[in-house]
Amino acid sequence: MNWVQLAEEVLEGKLLSNDEALAILHASDDELLLLMQGAFTIRKHYYGKKVKLNMIMNAKSGYCPENCGYCSQSSISTAPIEKYPFITKEEILAGAKQAFENQIGTFCIVASGRGPTRKDVNVVSEAVQEIKEKYGLKVCACLGLLKDEQADQLKTAGVDRYNHNLNTSEKHHDYITTSHTYQDRVNTVEIAKQHGMSPCSGAIIGMRETKQDVVEIAYALHALDADSIPVNFLNAIDGTKLEGTKELDPRYCLKVLALFRYINPTKEIRIAGGREINLGSLQPLGMYAANSIFVGDYLTTEGQEENADYALIRDLGFEIEVNEKQAALQA
Ligand code: SF4
User: Fold this and answer.
1) Is the dihedral of CA 234, 235, 241, 243 positive or negative?
2) Separation of 72 CA from ligand 1 center, angstroms?
3) How far apart are CA 150 and CA 85, in angstroms?
4) Which of 21, 128, 140, 308 has the fewest C-beta atoms lying within 10 Å of its C-beta?
5) Does residue 140 have a known ligand-binding role?
């Protein structure tokens, strides 16, 4: 396959066939740089060398009644994580201040649980109004399954984006969780869209799915028109159902990132959880397909030192995307 030519065709509007998509995941390691060159051709067309930074604030940890097999916060996990109820508005604001100072583009307020309570939505809404005023940060909320009135309140408060990952293909979904359905997840993304929030939805790779499953997730996110697509690589936590699962190698992770870029050419593709542990020393190459990363820690696992992320971007000759207030702070 001529990967660069295929990328040119994608730029002309082509949607890859299933066979072409699978061929990316089956590409030999010897073709990897050509594949990444193709992915970069697309990435550069839409995003140049800009990198968007995102930061997660874990607003409520543990105590979740759901049974997602990858999650240390689930009802079936025995992982010894820190557990706490929904944090206060002041704590959220302190996180936003740190995000602002660290050149973060999108501040992500994430809470465990099947869905938010009225009080949770009120706390997020009040915090977001102040975050917008003080810092001008984009805010993404990730609070679980969403109802119409909750989506309306969050949008009115200023939440820009709502995250709810599809995680895996429809046919692999029930292997990962049985306490909610794949369609529940799709519905929440649709509700967020209907209420004017930008849809963020992504995947977790390495959960014993097939390559065909990975292709199907990439197409499902294309069909959902997700603006932002976090691609997580499983960091199997001891005490979860997927404990001990280690199927990924760094070269395969790069092929997955390329696949998501070829199928979702215009979208924000983020290397999300598990970046450090799964891509290892090949992390910089991932930025030729992705245009976004998380900086700092993940929900219950640690990321690498922030300085290593900034050095990675600088060494590539790429540039962090900042808002006007952040640019004024640096000037
Ligand atoms: S992923 Fe979310 S819904 Fe699933 S168990 Fe973890 S916190 Fe609960």
Assistant:
1) positive
2) 8
3) 19
4) 308
5) yes
The reported pLDDT for the residue numbered 226 is 98
Lookup: tokens for 312: 């990675």
Neighbours of 252 (CB within 10 A): 20
Block residue for tokens 């994608």 = 10
Q: What is the CA radius of gyration of the chain?
A: 19
Which DSSP letter does residue 197 get? P
Q: How many CB atoms lie within 10 A of CB 219?
A: 17
Write down all domains in the chain, each with its CATH number in brackets: 3-330 (3.20.20.70)
Between CA 107 and CA 86 the distance in angstroms is 17
pLDDT, mean of each 10-residue run, the chain (331 residues): 97 98 98 98 98 95 94 92 94 95 95 96 97 95 97 98 98 97 97 98 98 98 98 96 96 98 98 96 98 85 82 96 86 79
User: For residues 296 and 96, what is the distance between their CA atoms, to the nearest angstrom?
Assistant: 13
Pair 146, 192: CB distance under 8 Å: yes
Nearest of 46, 39, 72 to residue 288 by alpha carbon: 39
Ligand 1 atom nearest residue 71's Cα: 6
Residue owning the nearest CA to atom 4 of ligand 1: 68
Is 200 labeled as ligand-binding? yes
